[in-house]
Amino acid sequence: MLPRILALGLLLVASASCSSGGSSSDDCKNICQKEASCVDQRSADGKEEDEEQNKFDQSECIAACDALSRDEVGKQLVDKHKACADAAGKDCDALLKCK
Fold first, then answer.
1. Are 85 and 4 in contact (CB under 8 A)?
2. Closest CA to 99 of 29, 27, 8, 26
3. Which of 17, 24, 54, 69 is the most buried (most CB within 10 A)?
C-alpha cells in the first residue's frame, strides 16, 4: 500500500522535476525515511503479501512530498500527513495508515 502522499505526489513529480532543483525539506526526508523503514520492517517480518506491489522508493516519496509542498493545497496535505506520522510515532501500522 503506497502512502496517499506518494500516490498524489507522483502526479506532480513529472512537472516539478523540470523546474527547481532545490533540496528536499527536512519534513519530507523524515516522513519518507520513517515510511521506508516501516515498509522494510514489514517485508522482513513477512507481513506484506505482495512484495512487488508494496515496493517503496524513498527518493520518489521525497520528490513527491517536495512537489506537493510547493502549492497551498499540496502543502496542507503534507502538513496533515506529517501530523499523522508524528502522532504514529514508532507504530508502523499506524504510520502506514496515514493518509
1. no
2. 8
3. 69
CA triple 29-94-92, angle to 5 deg: 60
Question: Of 95, 93, 63, nearest to 82 (Cα)?
Answer: 95
Residue with cell 516522513: 31
> Which set of grid coordinates corresponds to residue 6?
506518494
Q: Would you say 38 and 88 are in contact if contact means Cβ atoms under 8 Å apart?
A: no
**For residue 86, what are the CA distances in angstroms to 3, 10, 34, 71, 76?**
15, 22, 10, 22, 15
Residue spans of the chain under pLDDT 50: 1-2, 7-8, 10-23, 52-53
